[in-house]
Amino acid sequence: MKHNKMTLISAAAVIGASMLASCGEDVNMKRPPVFTLPELPQISDVHVYKAPLYWSVYEYCYELERAGVPESDMDISPEEWDKILDWVARDLKPHGYDMVCTDGFIPMLAKDASGYMTHYGSTALKDLVAKAEARGLKVGVYDNPLWIHGDESTPIEGTDYTFANLPYRGVEEVTNPDATGDRWFKWAMADHPGAREYIDGFFKHYSDLGIKYIRMDFLSWYEDGKDRNMGTVGYGYGRASYGRALSYIAESAKKYGVFTSLVMPHLYNDAELEARYGNMVRIVADTATGGWWHYSSADRGRTYANWPNCMNMFDGFIYWSHIAGKDKVILDGDFIRLNTFETEAEKQSVVSLQLMAGGPVTVSDQYHNIGSNLRYYTNDELLALNADRFVGHPLSETLTDANSQIWYGQMSDGSYVVGVFNREDAGKSVTLNLSDLGLTGSWNVRDLWQHKDEGSTSTLSVQIPARGCKIMKLTK
């Protein structure tokens, strides 16, 4: 199976804003269109997790690809895995980062009778799990319960069907019947007999391996076979089939206690399906080369009606903030590569925004290039927001409104956290009356980056450096 992430997912990221402007979109905010759905099941207690803190192989693989290494030659040796795991356990785990996760690029192989993925390149997942567990860490896996890895003759446990019953046969109603095929993926259609059991077997397989986090990609390609930058990429199995697939996924994920991370969704109907059935959902284009470009400047102020709705992380968090909250779906701003940022202010900003929005902090820097940047990932006063399942919201959901750069929310102990950001290239002064946040009287202020108490006030007057932020905890 070919799924070259730079070519496929990150096409939008590497093309650049000038080409994206040729798509004919104007600067007005666009919402995904609305579709009518058949009745789908409600599944209770889906949103019971906090956002994860973990390390991803993304940068490791992305840089190999940029260096011209063919996907078939990409791998991580046992010795390299040991170095990665030792580093994560030593430097990140004490601060709450408890997992490493695979991604695309490296071949995903099914090497046993189950027909599900057993190896990430040359590494058996069971061996990787054992290595991680020995260091007190967990393993997450990049895979999709709608992808077929195994041979067509593989039986689907609990049924009389085999994997051959799962793919498109050429007679079903699909979005793009004239498509030449599905690019790179062999999809299991959720409507086919045996699909529900196949999906259940997928989650049982990973749960039995000790894997409780699945990052599932290219969901937009399943739904309608469309990609905003690549055109038609497959048959597209329709909104109803997509909804059924997500309901089966949520059902089995809950059954086996597996966290689901939904990636590359169109988010139609105001993310109706993803917010109902997923634990976490990506709300921005791929990290790719990272830096300020991915965090704030790519197509700033623009939104699109399908994937990716927003090209930079900050716009994505603003645009989708209304669907997030405690006991709601978690918003994912994708991986962080601090070594691609230039200033201390930028590095503080990208980590702060993820935590202020209730998202994950996903380290993709590597042990050999992390250097002094480790300290931005390990600010325990800020990471306390993650432990508390804090989810903040912007004062405005309009991307071009300066108030969208002011975020706030309440901790479970009654305190508040206020984040004032500056997306501009020059410093600025910001004055904020706490009454604008619904707070009365004076509050004690603590700067969570400077680790300093700043007295009591009813009005915040702060100076924010270019591309910087100030994160303050307010207590009575």
Summarize the structure.
Helices cover 29% and strands 17% of the residues.
Key structural traits:
single chain, 476 residues, alpha/beta, TIM Barrel, Immunoglobulin-like, 2 domains, eight-stranded parallel β-sheet, six-stranded antiparallel β-sheet, disordered N terminus
Provide structural commentary.
Helix 7 runs parallel beside helix 9 (239-256). The protein is globular, with a radius of gyration of 22 Å. The protein contains 15 helices and 21 strands. A hairpin with a 2-residue loop joins strand 4 and strand 5. Strands 12-11-10-7-6-2-1-13 form an eight-stranded parallel sheet. It has a six-stranded antiparallel sheet with strand order 14-15-16-21-18-19, covered by helices on one side. It folds into two domains: 5-393, TIM Barrel (Alpha-Beta Barrel); 408-475, Golgi alpha-mannosidase II (Immunoglobulin-like). It has helices spanning 5-8, 11-15, 17-21, 58-66, 78-92, 125-134, 195-209, 219-224, 239-256, 268-277, 291-297, 313-319, 344-356, 374-377, 380-387, and strands at 53-56, 99-101, 108-109, 119-120, 123-124, 138-142, 213-216, 226-227, 231-232, 259-262, 280-282, 330-332, 361-363, 393-394, 406-410, 416-421, 428-433, 443-447, 452-457, 459-464, 469-475. The protein is an alpha/beta fold and 476 residues long. The longest helix has 18 residues, at 239-256.
